[in-house]
Design a protein that fits this description.
By secondary structure, the chain is an all-alpha fold. Helix content is 58%, strand content 0%. The longest helix has 25 residues.
């Protein structure tokens, strides 16, 4: 591929970043959050991530042999495997991890022509496929390391919240109060640093934010998607999130929901996938608002505690429609007065 001359319509611009440099840079920015997951959940978390990466890269290599293409070096399969490992519980059976990676690469990516042809994020699709196929294995969570004790299972904060809402008393004023009443006290700092049960790579909001800041500065990630996704979700939580605790408008606990679950991983590293997100800034804003709205609906009114993966996949479906509605302006074309109106 590297020796082929690629010709496209004018104008042509030189971009200093190649596909491979982008994929490997994103992977490097994710590594600190992955290292934190291994630290607090133990060596089992490392095995899960290695299995996901090996299965993704192995499937990519096998399908590349069939099509006589070598795409391993572009880093896309490695990144897909890494993100699947990030979205797995530390105690998940290894065969589930392997199935998720094989499904993501073979069905979601290569069935549609390989990198650039997939219409939804392969890692999210793999995660959702195994979640609904082996729900028990995908919802057994390991408690974070505390002193010398580890390898004890327990629910995530969002899982405890969903369960506790059904038996909530009238003196509960927010999610932290409810979690404390359920015997699983959590602080904002625990959520920010990642001292909570959850998927391996999603727990540390701090390290995910630091990694994403670098991508935003280097213009590898689009700020329009990040800001509109997190902003719309935060606004909806602030406006209506207090109703479930008997409070009024503008009383929702924004910080708790921003730092809980897979929101940071999804908004910063998965919704921003260049292949499955819109092309223009206006389209990205619409797409991000849609992701935030769907995440709010699924998390507050759905049957599962989390809603990020399904929300992003749902909006991936609408990307072709968004691209048609917000097409890029043709270079050098001056609009007539009627078209400008």
């Amino acid at each position: 591929m590297k020796d082929k001359l690629l010709i496209s319509s004018s104008p042509q611009f030189h971009h200093p970043q190649s596909t491979a440099s982008i994929m490997w840079t994103v992977s490097l920015c994710l590594l600190p959050a992955g290292a934190w997951g291994v630290y607090i959940f133990g060596i089992r978390a490392l095995l899960v991530m290695l299995a996901a990466i090996a299965a993704a890269v192995g499937t990519e290599a096998l399908l590349g042999l069939v099509k006589k293409e070598n795409t391993i070096a572009d880093g896309s399969a490695f990144l897909t495997g890494l993100l699947i490992g990030f979205n797995m519980p530390p105690a998940v059976p290894i065969y589930i991890v392997v199935v998720a990676s094989v499904f993501a690469i073979s069905v979601v990516k290569w069935t549609f022509g390989g990198l650039g042809g997939n219409w939804m994020n392969p890692a999210l699709a793999g995660r959702v496929f195994v979640f609904f196929s082996w729900t028990g294995g995908m919802t057994t969570w390991t408690l974070p390391r505390s002193g010398g004790a580890d390898a004890v299972t327990g629910p995530t904060p969002l899982g405890s919240l969903k369960t506790g809402l059904s038996s909530m008393t009238s003196n509960i004023h927010g999610p932290l109060d409810l979690l404390s009443a359920e015997g699983v006290p959590v602080s904002y700092m625990d959520l920010f640093l990642g001292r909570i049960p959850g998927s391996i790579g999603e727990v540390s909001a701090l390290l995910l934010i630091l990694g994403a800041l670098y991508l935003l500065i280097k213009k590898i990630a689009n700020w329009e998607i990040v800001v509109s996704y997190l902003g719309s979700f935060a606004l909806l939580v602030w406006l209506f999130g207090g109703f479930r605790y008997g409070q009024g408008l503008f009383t929702g606990d924004v910080l708790f929901h921003m730092l809980s679950g897979g929101l940071m991983l999804g908004a910063l590293f998965m919704a921003t996938d260049m292949v499955s997100s819109p092309l223009t800034p206006k389209g990205m804003l619409v797409y991000g608002v849609g992701c935030g709205f769907m995440t709010y609906l699924l998390r507050f009114f759905g049957s599962v505690p989390e809603g990020v993966s399904l929300a992003i996949i749902f909006m991936n479906i609408f990307v072709p429609l968004i691209n048609r509605a917000f097409q890029p302006e043709k270079f050098g074309v001056v609009k007539t007065e009627e078209e400008a109106k």
